[in-house]
């Protein structure tokens, strides 16, 4: 794990030393991932204009194909303000991937990431920029957990407790000495992201922690306090799967990226599928069915379960919907049919050799699962 150099304290916003580059290029790119945030777009742009009068800046809204007209709002403003632009992502989902795509689209030497829901204090941007400009840090994090910071107004009690637990786990497991590693509001030199981009996960919500944990070199970090504000419009995009994605990120970084977040998720789904498989097999055997028939039915039941859960969770950023869900299921079944044949053959052979039913069933499940992962990762959920 890389070591992180951290500095404390803040600086005054009026110490910013602007480098006026005119229309030739931006000094700062602000990346804002969005999903159904139409009502907040114009408000955020107005706040940026007021907060950054001395900087050459641009804001890039990276939108996951919102259905509420978010990109239309971005384009309306961009038509009269060259500092505003948008990236519309089709068949791709995920905050971390959106942030990475926006950062890599920038040519500015310094990039910031902030939410589009107006909960992040845009007045901190000039302070953060000043720290980087003076070379006092490579990464500046707006922290909710330093003195004079806070998150009580923007969090429910449940989310506040979950955030603090996640922060504690990151500090203990990854040895990251940051007060707020879960922050989604930060600024850094673009070259840092360029260096670690191939190692970053496209899934999940916490790209900051991923960047810090993935960097092979020391990153000088400064944290400044801010108050996390209540959301004005729209709804939070966090759901129950975020916790599992975060756990996957921790395991991935603890293993030195040997175990990817997606592989771990696939394995968890496969483990649940084994339980389904053995449960169906156990339920069918007492009803007079031959072991081969019962095992075949159990494997297909587990296969349908695994496909549905993987589509909803493991490959949520490439989720198949509508007719594509059905064609994906057929593709999944076709690819797994070879695994079913092999699995039934192996398990039947073991069972006829007087192995316990659950040992034979487990062996068949392992054979089928291996084929399932190898083929479907490359074909069924391949990136378009």
UniProtKB/TrEMBL annotation:
Signal sequence interval, chain numbering? none
The segment(s) forming the Glycosyltransferase 2-like domain are 29-195
Q: Which GO terms describe its cellular component?
A: membrane
Q: What is this protein called?
A: Glycosyltransferase family 2 protein
Per the database record, which ranges form the GtrA/DPMS transmembrane domain?
266-381
Location comes to: Membrane
Q: Which GO terms describe its biological process?
A: glycolipid biosynthetic process; polysaccharide biosynthetic process
What is the organism of origin for this protein? Answer: Mesorhizobium erdmanii
Q: Give the matching InterPro entries.
A: DPM1-like, Glyco_trans_2-like, GtrA_DPMS_TM, Nucleotide-diphossugar_trans
In the bilayer, the protein is annotated as:
Multi-pass membrane protein
Q: Tell me where on the tree of life, at the top rank, the source sits.
A: Bacteria
Q: Which SUPFAM superfamilies match?
A: Nucleotide-diphospho-sugar transferases (SSF53448)
Q: Can you tell me where the transmembrane regions are?
A: 263-285, 291-309, 329-351, 357-374
Q: Which GO terms describe its molecular function?
A: dolichyl-phosphate beta-D-mannosyltransferase activity
Q: Which family does it belong to?
A: Belongs to the glycosyltransferase 2 family.
Keyword list, A-Z:
Glycosyltransferase, Membrane, Transferase, Transmembrane, Transmembrane helix
